[in-house]
Amino acid sequence: MGYDFDRVIDRRNTNSVKWDVGRGELPMWVADMDFAAAPPVLEAVKARAEHGVWGYAGLPEAWYDAYIGWWRDRHGLALEKDWLLFCTGIVPAIGCIVRRFTAPGEKVVVQSPVYNCFFSAVTDNGRQVLDSPLRYDGGAYAIDFADLEVKLSDPAATLMLLCNPQNPTGQIWDRQTLARIGELCARHHVLVVADEIHCDVTEPGTGYVPFASVSETCRDNSVICLAPTKSFNLAGLKTAAVAVPDPVLREKLARALNNDGVSDAGAFAVDGAIAAFTKGGSWLDELCAYIFENRKAASAYLEEELPQVKAVPGQATYLMWLDCAALPGDKTELAQFIRERTGLFLCGGAMYGDSRFLRLNVGCPRSLLEDGLARLKEGVRLWEREKG
Predict the structure, then answer these.
(1) In Å, how far are 130, 132, 184, 283, 338 from 147, measured between CA atoms?
(2) What is the phi/psi pair of residue 296, to 5°?
(3) Which top CATH class is 26-39+281-387?
(4) pTM (global) more than 0.85
């Protein structure tokens, strides 16, 4: 079945965080796609809306079955019903986990460049960020295990936030890498929180490795964050889950999520997730194929028209990490300059921990991507002329 991912949907004046921008601006920043939800999700939400009574929602067996079946069939992970806890989003869940499993002043290990909310979830809660930067060789990223072990061995380090697959680089961590992370964290008594929200948007034919599937060590010393929201563009439904195999950790987290008021499901959150995971597979397959054609088109454009900017190869996400080290000047200023001069709104890499980069969202119709790339080229041309 062919889905129309080329259709441009006008999102202005819809209270969209992404599209609440100036006239003529093109937002390609926040991780929010510009495609309509999968038809089965639309049908489920419409049916629920038409019922007309939207009271407090519980979690039916179908919700648990949807998560269990999806991760079993798509990713080879045998989730158990008891592991699963509903939450309204991954970001509030991570903040809750930081507060529950660390003490004020303790350290949380992250690996920059990484999702900016990892930093805020730590610092906003009075904990310290302990960064173990990824190694970048000019073409790909890898983990600096010598540095990581030093950071994990710090007595004040009690939690590690792992992005799997990695945002913003698009890196998929292999089984051997994840096993080594798990062994080091267990050895140093550091709990792993694996944010796997981008796990479904991968290059066709390429899967990701769930952290909890690697070994008993990884499984029993982890909290896994899962959601349909990035894969199916459902952030507004406020629907996610955490999988906690260890019963003691699970009981503590269940209480913490409840105390924070992020454990109550809404009717649309439940029905939307069930529909996505039980009926959305073919839509997602076509989406991934479309996105990776977008990624290839963007990479080819940069290579031909803008070789000063290099796209870091990525196997996951609809986010492209652009190496701008060859360009003059401050790249945070560059992002603002491009927006002011061309209307193209990108994220500066400094917010993720590496100021040499820009992040580009290619989860959009091809025509918008082509417009964005042309604006990027023009913005860089003007920047280089000004910086001389």
Answers:
(1) 11, 6, 12, 41, 36
(2) -65, -40
(3) alpha beta
(4) yes
